[in-house]
């Protein structure tokens, strides 16, 4: 770690609507302390029709960067002067850096997921059969980073096939690896890593997925955290190892912190602290 002691207090924030529930100020507060960075991090509620104005006001106030959450990740993408490769492939941005009079856009969600699976859970995606459930913004944001890990198969299943197919079509050069299908098409298929990127857990709704998808020794990962979703219950009942998205939340925050401060904080103590509380 190359933490440098700062003399001025740099300001950061997370913008969303709603935003009061956000855990980001606590997470970044712990990161700042552990890396000796002098900075503040606050929540900013943006009007639904006023995202660009909100960002411009923060820039005028001297903010150095922001995280962006629901529902503004697409608008943030449109606002950037320069986009990272992951932001470009996701078509969405969760981290903005304000520097040299420009807005730099990053998407740390996918690499946050990969860090949680490979480093915290100790599971490699390389050579594995991976199933991604859902084809909304959350799924699109992690598709390229999963592909970068060289799975042998990456299947994306969604209620409406068109949305899953649209994501796969972006990766036409990987047509032997990437497949799109509906939930019904999953019968008799088995996977080593199953990632739930649907929002069905929010309403406690079970997905119409067959038990057969959970191969022996598989990992079932729900990008949602803080509740035992029907997906996690089903995975548990089928003997899979299960994980929720708390680690991903903290890892994507650490990667955003690194974009701003050029230092990567340790994440495991923070994950432990959140699990205990
Ligand atoms: P997010 O940004 O969280 O990805 P989103 O873009 O609205 O939110 O996408 C939500 C995803 O969850 C979609 O893939 C959606 O399926 P459809 O594209 O068919 O709408 C999926 N989803 C939500 N509720 C679901 C349910 N009850 N059963 C199956 N899929 C569901």
What does this 3D model show about the protein?
This protein has helices spanning 24-34, 51-60, 73-79, 85-90, 109-120, 137-147, 161-169, 230-237, 246-261, 268-276; strands spanning 10-16, 39-45, 65-68, 82-83, 95-99, 102-106, 129-133, 153-157, 178-181, 191-196, 214-222, 241-243. With 277 residues, the chain is an alpha/beta fold. The strands form two sheets. The chain has a six-stranded mixed beta sheet, with helices on both faces. Strand 1 (10-16), helix 1 and strand 2 form a beta-alpha-beta unit. Helix 1 (24-34) packs across helix 9 (246-261), helix 5 packs across helix 6 and helix 5 (109-120) crosses helix 9. The longest helix is centred in the last third of the chain and has 16 residues, at 246-261. The radius of gyration is 19 Å and the shape is globular. The two termini are 27 Å apart. Residues 1-7 have low confidence and may be disordered. The structure holds 2'-monophosphoadenosine-5'-diphosphate. 2'-monophosphoadenosine-5'-diphosphate binds at residues 134-139, 158-160, 163, 198-200, 205, 207.
Summarize the structure.
Helix content is 36%, strand content 22%.
Q: How many DSSP-defined strands?
A: 12
Low-confidence stretches: 1-7
Helix content range: 25-40%
Bound molecules: 2'-monophosphoadenosine-5'-diphosphate
Instruction: Report the biggest beta sheet as strand number plus sense, adding barrel if it closes.
Output: 6 strands, mixed
Work out the oligomeric state of the chains in this entry. Answer: single chain
Order of helices and strands: EHEHEHEHEEHEHEHEEEHEHH
Number of helical runs?
Answer: 10
Average pLDDT number: 95
Biggest sheet strand line-up? 2-1-3-5-6-4
Estimated structural class: alpha/beta
Distance between the termini: 27 Å
Shape descriptor: globular
């Amino acid at each position: 770690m190359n933490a440098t002691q700062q003399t001025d207090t740099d300001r950061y924030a997370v913008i969303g609507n709603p935003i009061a529930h956000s855990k980001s100020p606590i997470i970044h507060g712990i990161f700042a302390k552990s890396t000796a960075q002098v900075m503040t991090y606050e929540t900013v509620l943006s009007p639904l029709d006023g995202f660009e104005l909100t960002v411009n006001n923060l820039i005028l106030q001297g903010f150095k960067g922001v995280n962006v959450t629901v529902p503004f990740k697409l608008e943030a993408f449109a606002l950037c002067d320069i986009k990272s490769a992951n932001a470009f492939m996701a078509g969405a941005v969760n981290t903005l850096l304000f520097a040299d009079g420009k807005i730099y856009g990053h998407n740390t969600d996918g690499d946050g997921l990969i860090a949680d699976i490979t480093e915290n859970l100790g599971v490699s995606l390389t050579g594995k059969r991976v199933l991604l459930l859902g084809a909304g913004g959350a799924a699109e944001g992690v598709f390229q980073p999963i592909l970068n890990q060289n799975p042998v198969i990456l299947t994306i299943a969604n209620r409406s096939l068109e949305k899953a197919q649209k994501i796969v079509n972006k990766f036409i050069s990987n047509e032997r690896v990437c497949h799109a299908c509906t939930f019904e098409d999953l019968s008799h298929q088995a996977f080593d890593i199953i990632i739930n990127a649907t929002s069905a857990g929010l309403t406690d709704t079970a997905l119409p997925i067959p038990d057969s998808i959970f191969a022996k020794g598989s990992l079932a990962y729900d990008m949602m955290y803080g509740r035992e979703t029907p997906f996690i219950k089903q995975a548990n009942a089928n003997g899979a190892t299960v994980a929720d998205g708390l680690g991903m939340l903290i890892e994507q925050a650490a990667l955003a912190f690194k974009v701003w401060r050029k230092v990567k904080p340790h994440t495991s103590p923070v994950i432990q602290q959140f699990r205990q509380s």
